[in-house]
Amino acid sequence: MKIEDVQSTARQQRVAAHTHIKGLGLDAQGCAMPIGTGMVGQEKAREAAGVVVELIRTKKMAGRALMLAGAPGTGKTALALAVAQELGPKVPFCPMVGSEVYSSEVKKTEILMENFRRAIGLRIKENKEVYEGEVTEISPEEIENPLGGYGRTVSHVILGLKTTKGAKQLRLDPSIYEQMQKEKVTVGDIIYVEGSTGAVKRVGRSDAYATEFDLEAEEYVPLPKGDVHKKKEIIQDVSLHDLDVANAKPQGGGSDLATVMGSVLKPKKTEITEKLRTEINRVVNRYIDQGIAELVPGVLFVDEVHMLDIECFTYLNRALESSLAPIVIFATNRGVCTIRGTEVVSPHGVPVDLLDRMLILRTLPYSLEEIVQIMSIRAETESLSIEDEALAALGAVGARTSLRYAV
């Protein structure tokens, strides 16, 4: 008897600046624990973020905005990432930086809109009927060719499928038979046929035949369990931006030179027109009314908001009020400064009419004990062993300069 120790399959991840943050660190009542899931201190800001997460989960926060304001190195990005972790992988989270907007190819507002659409998810539910099993027989039934002549045509195909539970005979259309020939299906293969579209997919050879040859290039799969005829519910998560892109560049199988060259020399970044977006919104709304799909408003995180200029801010005013808007979290480390593109001085470099739509969360500088605590968490994440005196010295450096420098 052989006992092996199994290698851990957890991926050895790169340690990044915010790897240690796993959530907001709140207890069941929504009160911040002093140290929890990688977050230290900032109790008030974390509790406020916890309320926001609750609102997002109950879908009551759409189209509102949050502003995280505080000195550099007080954990604004960390808070936003903690919110993303709390929401879980199913809610889209799209981070961007204010200076990403400036591009020579695409309008500023276009990039903003693209990120807005990235942050809105759509969950599509589909019911599929599938026949799957091991092929026991394929017998094409032939009739005289109705167009005269001596040839005979296939009228229908009898396909026998068996699973562990039972067997079934299906009468199939000749077009499905052509697909089976293309897939090179023979007796003893395991296939599945979709009920709605009639698509045939060959999964592999049944493992009953695994000892047939010594060497070959076949994949052996076990016999499917359950009945031959199954109903499956398939859930897909896409963002609206994926839908936009899929419809903006139709992948045509053109054989002329222009299409071939166009696909080889990837063109510049294309703008997605307003018309296309309205079309997609209409289709999405129809799906939602029919109950096929549901909207999952996500989070758009814009770091360094003071880098946006006045045109972007006026566009944001409108974008936040549209019916499909995500929750937007802004972060900035500026106090009172001028708005880009104007002479106006305003708090955080954001126009006042946009500030009115935001809830501002302050992040306060860390105390010495908290800096030491963060250092020990970082040391643990990067698997270093540091003595307490060294941590205290680092904490003193951090209190004198900034947390980032100490890290």
Plain-language structure description:
This protein has 12 helices and 17 strands. The chain has 407 residues and is α/β, with parallel strands linked by helices. Strands 5, 6, 7, 8, 9, 10, 11 and 12 form an 8-stranded mixed beta sheet that branches. α1 packs parallel to α2, α3 runs parallel beside α8 and α10 (368-381) packs across α11. The model has no long low-confidence stretch (mean pLDDT 81).
Can you describe this structure in just a few lines?
This protein is α/β, with parallel strands linked by helices and 407 residues long.
Describe the largest sheet.
8 strands, mixed
> For the residues shown, what is the average pLDDT?
81
Cα-based radius of gyration, to the nearest Å: 29 Å
Question: What percent of the residues sit in helical stretches (DSSP H or I)?
Answer: 25-40%
Q: Helix segment count?
A: 12
Q: Pairing-aware structural class of the strands and helices?
A: alpha/beta
End-to-end CA span: 49 Å
Keywords:
alpha/beta, eight-stranded mixed β-sheet, five-stranded parallel β-sheet, 27% strand
Task: Describe the SSE topology.
Blueprint lengths: L34 E2 L2 E2 L2 H15 L7 E6 L5 H12 L5 E5 L10 H11 L1 E25 L7 E11 L4 E6 L1 H9 L6 E6 L5 E7 L13 E2 L7 E11 H9 L8 H8 L9 H17 L2 E5 L1 E5 L6 H12 L5 E6 L3 E3 L6 E3 L4 H4 L2 E6 L4 H14 L6 H13 L2 H4 L1
Parallel strand pairs: 3-14, 3-17, 4-13, 9-10, 13-14
Antiparallel strand pairs: 1-2, 5-6, 5-8, 5-11, 5-12, 6-7, 8-9, 15-16
Helix pairs in contact: 1-2, 3-8, 10-11
